[in-house]
Amino acid sequence: MSAKGSLSTLAALVIGLALSSPVSADIPPPRPPEPQHDMPAPAPTPSPVDPNSTNPGQSAPAAPTDAQSKEDKAFAAKEALAKTLVERDGVIALPGGQASVAVADGFAYLDSADANKLLTQIWGNPASAIGNVIGAIVPRNVDVLAASSWAAIITYDNDGHVSDSDAASINYDELLKQMQTGSEEANQERAKSGYEPITIVGWAQKPSYDAANHKLYWAKHVRFGNAEDTLNYAIRALGRTGVLQINVIADMKQLEDINGQVPKLLSMVSFAQGHRYADFNESSDPVAAYGLAALVAGGVAVKAGLLKWLIAAAVASWKLIAVAIAGVGAVVARFARGLFGGKPGTPAG
Prior knowledge:
Strand content: 15-25%
Structural class: alpha+beta
Order of helices and strands: HHEEEHEEHEEEEHEHH
Number of helices: 7
Largest sheet: 7 strands, antiparallel
Strand order of the largest sheet: 3-4-5-9-8-7-6
Distance between the termini: 52 Å
């Protein structure tokens, strides 16, 4: 089989597997009964008068409904949790000692415990879908409960040394077409099961590889159903025997802002002496079974456990962050209001 055919098969397999996983469908609210035209309309119920008002005709304010009260309490609980997050700066050694983060001005680092708290208890992701998060980078000037919030989630994949020998020969436009074809085929199966399509619209930022520092980044524009447009920004730093993965999920309208932050994110992460790409020992170190093209297409997505992200998407979540994945990050994203439910502090209409 040709290299092109192998790549096409790989992309179709990965996207097909990922996109065929079920996602919860919206359940519309019950419709009110149709009015009975042959019955007289009931007399209007007078509005309660506010005894504290100086205007005798002024109605009392409506009492909060049970749903509103529950929503307010849930948001208050998230606010309290957000205040417990410890924002760290300086040079942070990542778990395992293979790499570190030098926190730039305007950013903060959350350790593994706080990153998991942010993803599960504050943003509502299921704990079983988080994977091995080792930390997160967040902008200091954006509240984690704001609609404009985002985080760069850090994980590490130890599949082995990823060769960049194919860097100069990859046709990313052709790769995108193959991935789109795979997603279209998978959407046919999704439709049969009653689920909305997940479409790879295109590159939000075409893949770019920094050969000197062995860092790759790209962004995909993904659409859930017919309305929810999501930005999936991926950064990969290649090391001696694995890949440091940084995934940012946000709205497409945040592309310009995040694009402006990517150089800082790239410069913040680095491997320690002895674990750098240049430290690779060809005679003894393990080698990954994929290269850069497959890394972008999702070559490691078929590993056991990684597809649980899409299965776990069946819960109502404000932000679903792809953390332990490579190419599947293109189809797992932040679900905002209108897809699964409401943003914190906003009633689900």
